[in-house]
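Teaching assistant here, posting this on the class forum so everyone can see the example we discussed in section. The complex has three components, and the goal was to see what a joint structure prediction looks like when all of them are supplied at once.
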Amino acid sequence: MSSNNVKRSSDAVTAGGHGDISLLPELEAFRDPKSKAARASYDDADIYRDEKSFNEHTLAPMFTTSRAYFVFVIALGIVIANGFAWFVAQTFLGMGQTNMHEPLFWGAYIATFVFWVGMSHSGTIVSSILRLSQANWRRPILRAAEAMTAFSLLVAGMFPLVHVGRLWRVYYMFPLPNQRELWPNFKSPLMWDMMAIGIYLTGSMTFLFIGLLPDLAVARDKAIRENNWRRHYLSFLSLGWRGSHREWSVYNKASMFLAVAILCIAPSVHTIVSWDFAMTMTPGWHTTIFGPYFVVGAIYSGIAAVITLMISLRWIFKLDDVIRTLHIDCLAKLLIVIAIIWTYFYFCEFNVVWYSQKPEEWGIWEWQAERFGSFLWIMVGGSVLSIFLMSWRKIRTNMVAMFFITLLVNVGMFIERYLIVVPILSHRDSAYMWTDYVPSVTELSIIVGSFAYFVLLYALFLKLFPIVTMADVKEGVIVSGDVKLGRHAVRMQVKE
Amino acid sequence: MTVDLDRCDGCGACVVACQAENNIPSLGVEQTQEGRNMLWLRIERYIEGSYPDVKVRFLPMMCQHCDTAPCESVCPVYATYQNNEGLNVQVYNRCVGTRFCGNNCPYSVRYFNWYDPDFEGKEKNQLNPDVSLREKGIMEKCTFCMQRIRRGKDNAADEGREVHDGDIKPACVQTCPTGALEFGNINDHHSRVSKLAHSGRAISLFEEKGTHPSVKYLKGGTADVF
Amino acid sequence: MNNHYTVLGLYKKMETTVNATPQIREAFNLKDGEIEVLTSAAYPDEILIEDKTLMYQVNKRQFLFPFLLGIVGLAIGILLAGGTGWIMNLDVGGKPPFALPPTGIITYEFTLLFAVIGSVISLLIYGGLPNWTERAYDPDITDGSLGILIKVNSNEEQNKAADMMANLGAYKVKKGKNDF
């Protein structure tokens, strides 16, 4: 899109030595920012960019900080402090500060927990699938997606702590040898959940860190050159990375292995989260579809969140030539597929209950429609509408439209989690205990605080670590070239 | 335990007795409006028909002490398990308050301490020393008056005999004016409970869930074993 | 460790580097592990260092750690989920003390956790990381230059190698001692 930023000095040090390749005339016309072809194209290449300016450009979000950033961080801090204060009050006074009551023992906290765990799924799944399938367009967006995973998991991991009645006794759940001679009960889905989340957090943090290594070295060199304060932790964290052939070879193997491992862990995590519900005998929760349905829902909301985030990054840090329209377009296509699967699963879940009309299950749907009808419409309608809208390339490549569509998808997915927890628990087997629930100020403050916490973590990450997967982009440049096919010049991808 | 639904007139004496026996705090108007009334034993009212042909049905509901209790397996810290008397026991000190058990109980008879219990004035002097107080953040529920079962067994052991039918009476059974509640050993074929539970009138609540409750409800029919 | 001398030549183009590496290697009779190419991105194997027998061995062994630790994780998973069930042996909801599905789930998770840890360990061991000591390096490398780094035994050889690298198109040559 903004081809103006692409610098093409003739004496440029290009990564793969492609500076030597004389451009085909058609290609030259194609690359001309003023040409019609370039304006029609959403694939404005960065391969002729000189690597040093590429580094400078992609590290700019990290090394240059505006005043607005500090204002933003302070504002986030206030929101978080507010949530934290309510959390402290809740811990000291008791869980009565929430609006939960018998038999609605789980409320908005658990819904938000599921939401955040869901958010965490796109990052690593997208990045490992794309890594393994060697999709070329993946390259610049991996880091942003992986960081999203790690941070949303951190936020999600906070919610069980907010939720439990006796926070000071939560270590009873850890499998540690102890004097009480009491081990946790591994037959409980909550134990599986805790293990899975902990392991996923470890795995995705590792994935993030290993992926960071070469880029940390780039940032380190820049920080040392500029005598920036970041040089201390960057030198430490880059582990003395030099980029030797040995390091690269081992690194590539390790990241492939980690991608496979993460790909095995991630679906299991959300399946287990779904089993927190499905393993009970509560009508409405006790369904076999919950496992795959949750996994798809997680990827759905996650990819939508990745797109929202990418568009924000593009807009805030002027990274439009790195995170290009192409990426949003490709992600949107992925999102359509996932959205269709999700909608299909949701229909399956509904249809089975609607047809059989089993009173204990159908009763919940009726209650849901009566009590949360508008929510239901936002969720289902939003999903169908987004599929419909994203079918047009014009909308997929329109950043403003995509921003709002993906936001709508995530609002819908938050509602979905809320509707999984609340209507079902307020409509239990024992009709005498049917109840209603609206989250209290405490709950809302903590939930809003959690969103601010996520954004803050991300904002801090942006300033401390490189946000663009530079090494992957450079690798993509090396293994690609332009080949003339008939009258057209085509970008070729060489399989490694 | 058996509950004769045809005998129950919904007077609520059992509820009060339970509350007094087990140190259950009365939560006051505000908390009750929130729906947090902590009643280990509650009387559920169901209204049948429409005016003027209205019938009110009462259903005393307490922990059913299921044989395959859904609440037990989901607890991550073994805070609730099946003891060898067949009771579903809650270990307060182990509980961390995940409240998963409450979600998996089809009878909704598990209660959570949303706040620290607050016993004021005279209430403090009438606390039962045999029953521990529960702090905020833990689950609790009907224990079938565990302390009375213990005492009954101890007395029998002191006298060097087996526990007789009728030796042990939970507070609700002791108080029930119509004799709707019966308590005893269901494995003892001569006990009143066993006879009632095996009469044609006995039903289990939510039998289709496969929880195998220890509490049997008696309903309909005229057969009376006594 | 016996003393060695290093030479780091920086090149701007891949073609020149690919051209220079075998010549330098032959001239000084360098074995694997005595010559390295430093780059800012992962180049496909065999483009920069043609003889990769050593690399091949390293890569094969790289899966040893994840595999072994995966087995450790498997054992820990079984012991935790199954073993502690035996020790506690409390009847919860009529479930058997050793229940296969939960044990399977926990074992799966722990196997993967330890495999992840193992792959990081093997990355560190076989990649020679972390190494925070001063080593032959130039920040130009992350800006897109390619560096040929060699290890020789004497000062004369070092000077000779430096000249040769410059002749083969290096725009900058750095000499060092004991910092391969």
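For the discussion questions: The mean pLDDT of chain C is 80. Chain C touches chain B at residues 88, 90-95 (CB under 8 Å). Think about how each of these relates to the inputs above.
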